[in-house]
Amino acid sequence: MLLPLLACGCASASKIRADSEIISAEIAQARRSGATRCAPRELAAAEANLDFAQAAVSQGASNRAEEHIQAADQAIKKALELSKDCEPKKEPVVVKVAEADRDGDGIPDSVDRCPDEPEDFDGFQDDDGCPEPDNDGDGVPDVVDRCPNTPGPAENAGCPIRDADGDGVPDDVDRCPNTPGPASNQGCPEEKTYKSVVVKDTRIEIKQQIKFKSGSAKIIGKDSFAILGEVAQALKDNPRIKRIRIEGHTDSVGGDAMNLKLSENRANAVMSQLIKNGIDPVRMEAVGYGKRKPIASNATAKGRAQNRRTEFNIVAE
Amino acid sequence: MTRALAVFTLLGALAACGPVQSTSYLIDADVQLEAARTAGAEKHAPYEWTAANLYLHQAREEVGRSEYEVAVDFAQKASSYANRARANALSAIKAGADATPATRP
User: Fold this and answer.
1) Where are the beta strands (DSSP E) in B1-105?
2) What is the model's pLDDT at position A187?
3) Could you tell me the end-to-end alpha-carbon distance of chain B, in angstroms, rounded to an integer?
4) Phi-psi region of A215 (alpha: psi -120 to 50; beta: other; left: phi over 0)
5) Distance of alpha carbon A48 from its chain centroid, rounded?
6) B67 and A59 in contact by Cβ < 8 A?
7) How many CB atoms lie within 10 A of CB A161?
8) Is the separation of the CB atoms in A235 and A244 below 8 Å?
9) Among A18-22, A70-74, A98-102, A196-200, which stretch is predicted with the lowest mean pLDDT?
10) How close does chain A come to B59, measured CA to CA in Å?
């Protein structure tokens, strides 16, 4: 009668010890899974009940031990369940292998076109790994080139010489830096030549005088009209001439008033002809000076002929 | 007669030692647990808080079974867990964290 009971007690104690070991292992696993964070109550219950079970075993109370084992088992199962996704995810470790860079410019030798010369990182072709001592290739080293990325002569510190009028002739050799002109004329516009007219800085000079009917403002002679035709053409060719003053002059023969009136009428007649030739009246003014501004002596016929004249003076450019 | 009385008294004193001692540990554990509760251990140190409560409860049961030695052991563990629960709760509150990792006593 007593033997079966003792045998049963031994078997029960063995089972409890085996279960305890399993639960201990599960507790350890739960801790590794982060149960202290995700299932702290369940973990504590499992550990405590396991402890209670062991105490009960040492007291010979198998039934109580069994109850605590069951409680510990339930608790640790729940803890494991709650800790499934609790373990902090480990970031994959990326091992970077440093690439060779002999010149130490930060560009690996595998893509560095100049692996032994460090890139100068001056904002010009900095990806190729090669230094560019003269970015613009103008022969002026970048260290002294005030315009390292724009070609220019050394005389101008490596900067391009300006060409204000954009005629392709640099200002330093352009005699007319603000007026376009071909290089063949040193950057100045080529002036047209006329048969009877010369455009000068302050006036349009006519080689022959315009002829008028004696004592009248009527222009006569084909040559006179041809000259005025060329004056009109010169004005069209030179838009820089904004305004001219057509001056009528006489010799000293005759009264002052008569000469003054005659010179005014002749100047007006010339202006009228130029208007007919297509010149804007705004670009002209007509003034009669009479005999007040002689350029030669009125004592001789030749001098008086010189004084009878029409002038085209430039008054605005 | 006198000798017999002395032996009887000594045995009686020894017999009363277990309950008195275990009761003292239980009271101590109770006090520690109350302090932990006040510190917010239930929320901020749930592992230690749960363990402390379970051990205290079991200690009382062991006293009921007159297993004083085991009761004292569990009461001490309850005190230890309660102490840690309180400390962890205070740290967690100070750090602004919701919980701190649990530690065994």
Assistant:
1) none
2) 87
3) 50
4) left
5) 76
6) yes
7) 14
8) yes
9) A98-102
10) 10
Asked if the model's pLDDT at residue A215 lies above 80, the reply is yes
Residue B101: CB atoms within 10 A of its CB come to 11
Measured between beta carbons, the chain A residues lying within 8 angstroms of B74 are 52, 55
Q: What are the tokens at B103?
A: 């530690």
Q: In this structure, which amino acid lies at residue A99?
A: E
**pLDDT one-digit tens code per residue, A8-47:** 455 577 888 888 999 999 999 888 888 888 999 999 999 9
The two tokens of residue B59 are: 């200690």
φ, ψ (nearest 5 deg) of residue A19:
-65, -40
Nearest chain B residue to A61, by CA = B65
Which pTM does this prediction carry?
A: 0.43
* Residue A39 tokens, joined: 């299932």
- For residue B50, what is the nearest residue in chain A, using CA coordinates? A41
What pLDDT, on a 0 to 100 scale, did the predictor assign at position A133? 86
Helix pair A40-58, B68-95: axis angle to 10 deg: 170
Q: Please name the residue that has the structure tokens 């640099």.
A: A170
The pLDDT score that the predictor gives to residue A6 is: 46
Residue the block writes with tokens 């130490």: A104
